[in-house]
Amino acid sequence: MFFTDLLFPKHCLGCSILGAYICPKCQRQLHYLDRNTCFYCKKASLYSLTHPICLKNFNITGLTAIFSYNNLLKKIIKNIKYRLVTEAWKDLTRIIEPEAVRQIGFYKRISKDFFLQPIPLSKRKIRERGFNQAFLITRFFQAFLDFPISDFLIRVKETLPQAELKTKKDRYNNLRGAFKINPVNKSKVIGSKIILVDDVVTTGSTVREAAKVLKKAGAAKVYVLALAKG
Ligand SMILES: [Zn+2]
Ligand SMILES: [Zn+2]
C-alpha cells in the first residue's frame, strides 16, 4: 500500500467498494468491442472499416474502439475527466487485455505514416481541467502504434454535450464550426493520413465534424480510434 492510499483511499468508481478504482467484480462488467461494423451502415466489416460503397467525400474511413460503452465506463470516464485523472486512468490501462490492444495493430498494416490526432479541447476547458483526456488516451495508443501525435486541429468553440440536445438541428448547430485547422500546421495536413482519437464515440457527431474539417483542408484519410464506442 502506498502512503497516498491512506490519505485518499481508493473507492471503486463502479460500486464504491474500498480498495481499487475498478474492483475485480466491476472489471468483469467491462465489455470489449467484439463486433466489427461499418460506421455508416452498421453492417459487419473487417476491422470496422467503412465499406467502399458507404464511403463519401468527407466520411470517416474506419472507426473502432477497445470497449463497448456502458454505464460503468460512463462513470469511469467521467471521473477521469473531472478529478481522478492519472490514478484511475492508470488502473484502467492496467486492466485492458493485451489482446484487445493488439487488435488495433491493423493500423500499422494499413500505413506506416499515420498521425494520431487527439480531439482537442478549447483553451478554456484545458485551463479548467489542466489536461485533455483525449490526449492521455492518445498517448496510451501511441505506445502500441508508434505513430507521431499531431497538432492539426484546434477547438474554437465551446460545445454542449451532444446528448443534452434534443433536436437534430440543435446538435448540428452545436458542433458546426467547433474545429479549425491549426494555422501553424496547415501544410502538413495536405495528403496526410490521420487517426482521430477520442474517449467515447456514441452518435459520432464530434468525430464526424472533426473529420470533415481535416478532409476539407486536404487530409487524404481520416480514421477514428476511441476508448469506447456506444
Ligand atoms: Zn466495483
Ligand atoms: Zn457500410
From TrEMBL:
Pfam families: Pribosyltran. InterPro entries: ComF/GntX_DNA_util-trans, Growth_fac_rcpt_cys_sf, PRTase-like, PRTase_dom. Residues 169-227 form the Phosphoribosyltransferase domain. Belongs to the ComF/GntX family. This is Phosphoribosyltransferase domain-containing protein. The lineage of its organism: Bacteria, Candidatus Roizmaniibacteriota.
